[in-house]
Amino acid sequence: MKIRNIVAGSLLLLVMGCQTSEQELLKTDKSQVELRRMQTRAFDTTDREKTLRTIIATLQDLGFVVDKADATLGSVTATKLSGYNLIMTVTVRPRGDKQLLVRSSAQFNIQAVSDPKPYQDFFTSFSKAMFLEAHQVD
């Protein structure tokens, strides 16, 4: 009977601990709408493969190491290890007939990043790379 109570109590603490971790993971100081606005840009192209290649090149130019790229899902995950552990996942999906939506999501350790700077840095470099790619400039 005591062992059953100990096991039940341990399981309860484990479940409560997981809930706290999930709440901390989702906690940011920005509203979700504001965060999504920082993370998402529309581009006037339908070439998903070229966009994914440009995302990979941009992340590498910014000092990230690509961990995983999946053309089927349209996502790239990369880690920046210089001084900190920043993980960025970038996804591409169609928006209408003539555009692609590119959304970047950054995490520092297990905390979602709400600071606009990493997103601005990524999209500034990515926009330049997309412009150069569209105009076939080497």
Q: What distinguishing features does this structure have?
A:
single chain; 138 residues; alpha+beta; TATA-Binding Protein; 6-stranded antiparallel beta sheet; 6 strands; 48% helix
Task: Please explain how this structure is put together.
The chain is of the alpha+beta class. It has two domains: 1-29; 31-134, TATA-Binding Protein (2-Layer Sandwich). Helix content is 48%, strand content 28%. It contains four helices and six strands. Strands 1, 2, 3, 4, 5 and 6 form a six-stranded antiparallel β-sheet that branches. The longest helix has 25 residues, at 2-26. Mean pLDDT is 82; it is low at 7-28.
Structural class: alpha+beta
Question: How would you spell out the order of helices and strands?
Answer: HHEHEEEEEH
Helix content: 40-55%
% residues in beta strands: 25-35%
CATH superfamily of the largest domain: Kinase associated domain 1, KA1
Number of contiguous helices? 4
In a few lines, what is going on in this structure?
The protein has 138 residues and is α+β, with helices and mostly antiparallel strands.
Task: Give the arrangement of secondary structure elements.
Blueprint: H1 2-26, H2 32-39, E1 40-43, H3 48-61, E2 65-70, E3 75-80, E4 86-95, E5 99-108, E6 111-112, H4 116-134
Antiparallel strand pairs: 1-5, 2-3, 3-4, 4-5, 5-6
Helix pairs in contact: 3-4
